[in-house]
Write a structure and sequence with these properties.
- 2 copies of one chain form a homodimer.
- Chain A is α+β, with helices and mostly antiparallel strands.
- Chain A has 9 helices and 8 strands.
- Chain A has a 4-stranded antiparallel sheet.
- In chain A, strand 4 and strand 5 form a beta hairpin.
- The longest helix of chain A has 25 residues.
- At the A-B interface, strand 5, helix 3 and helix 5 of A face strand 5, helix 3 and helix 5 of B.
C-alpha cells in the first residue's frame, strides 16, 4: 500500500528505503467504503489524504440543498480542505469516497513532526502545492471562460480516466449542470 | 525595497541577515508603470513575482475579446502563471500592473538555485503555495455556490482593502459581471 507513495515522492525528490520506512510511520492506513465520509462540513480537517486506491471527492451543500462537487482525487493525488487543515477552523466542505478506497492519512501534527525530522520533504510538498495552485489557476479560468459544454469537452480531453470512472451524476455536479443536461451533451457526440 | 520580503519570510521561517543578503541577490528589482505588462499570453512565464508596492492582476482575453481578471496581488503577495513557470509552456494569461508597482522578480532558474543553496526556503514556498491552494478551494466554492451579488458582498468582507483600491471596472471583471451591474449592486447599499 505504501509503495505508491514512495514512488510518488521519488518523482520529486530522492528518498532512501531507510528514511521512507520512518516517514511512512507518520501515516495511518484507512479503508473507506463507497459513499463513506472522511470529513463533514463544520468539523476540523485534521488529515491530509493521499489516495492509494480508489477515488475521493470534495463537495459542499449549496443553498438549494444540492451537493456541489468541486474536486476529485484518484490514485497519487492528495486531498484535504487546506484552510481547515492549516487554521484548524471548521471545514466548509465534505470529503467522501466515490468508490471503495485505500487512503494514507497524515495528521497536521504528524506532518509537521515529519517535516521537522525530514526537511527535504518540504520540497515534495512545495511541488505538490505549487502544481495544485497551478491547476487551480487553469480551473478558475475554465469556470469563467468556458460555456458548460466547453467545460465538459475540456474535462474529457484533460482527464479521460475520470469520465470513464466517475458516476455521471457526480461528473454533472462537478461541471455544474444537471445529469439530464450531461446526457444531452453526451448524446450529441454519438455519430 | 527588500525589507518587506525579509519580514514576509520571517512570518514563516527564521532567517538571519547574512542568509537573507545572499537570498536577495537571486532577485531582480523591477518597477512597472500602470497598465504595463509583465507577462503576455503565449509567452513563457519565467518569473515568480513578489509585490513590494502596488498591485498586479492576472487576466485572460475571453472568446468575446473581453479581459477577464482572475487574480489580484497587492503588497506581500506572490503571483506567477504557475503552469507556465514550472513547465516552461506558453502562458494562458497576462500579468499587468494595476498601479505603478515595485516588484521583486525571481526567475525559475534562480529560484531553483536559491532553494538548492537554502533548502529551508522550501518551507517558506510550501506554506505560500499551501495557502494559495487553500484560497483557491474557497474561491472555486464561491464561483459555484454564490450568486453574483453574494460574491460581491463576500469579497467586500474578505478583502476590503481591494474594494477601496482597485478600479471598479477591474473589480467587476474579477467578479464576472459588467461595471453597470456592479454600480447597481453598490447603489443598493446606500441607505
Amino acid at each position: 500500500m505504501s509503495d505508491l507513495l514512495k514512488k510518488h515522492i521519488e518523482r520529486f525528490i530522492e528518498i532512501n528505503e531507510e528514511d521512507f520506512s520512518t516517514i511512512i510511520r507518520y501515516f495511518r492506513k484507512i479503508e473507506v467504503k463507497k459513499k463513506e465520509n472522511l470529513l463533514i462540513e463544520g468539523k476540523i480537517c485534521h488529515d491530509n489524504y493521499f489516495v492509494v486506491k480508489g477515488c475521493l471527492r470534495m463537495f459542499f451543500i449549496n443553498d438549494k440543498g444540492v451537493e456541489q462537487t468541486i474536486q476529485f482525487a484518484i490514485e497519487n493525488w492528495w486531498l484535504a480542505e487546506y484552510v481547515s487543515f492549516e487554521t484548524h477552523q471548521p471545514s466548509q466542505f465534505y470529503i467522501q469516497a466515490v468508490e471503495k478506497s485505500e487512503i494514507l492519512a497524515i495528521s497536521y501534527q504528524a506532518q509537521e513532526e515529519m517535516l521537522l525530522q525530514f526537511p527535504r520533504m518540504e520540497r515534495y510538498f512545495r511541488l505538490i502545492h505549487q502544481r495544485a495552485h497551478a491547476a487551480s489557476q487553469s480551473r478558475i479560468k475554465s469556470l469563467y471562460g468556458f460555456s458548460r459544454e466547453e467545460m465538459y469537452y475540456h474535462f474529457c480531453r484533460r482527464y479521460p480516466e475520470f469520465v470513464q470512472r466517475v458516476p455521471q451524476y457526480l461528473l454533472a455536479s462537478f461541471l455544474g449542470f444537471t445529469p439530464e443536461y450531461l446526457s444531452e451533451i453526451r448524446s450529441k457526440r454519438i455519430p
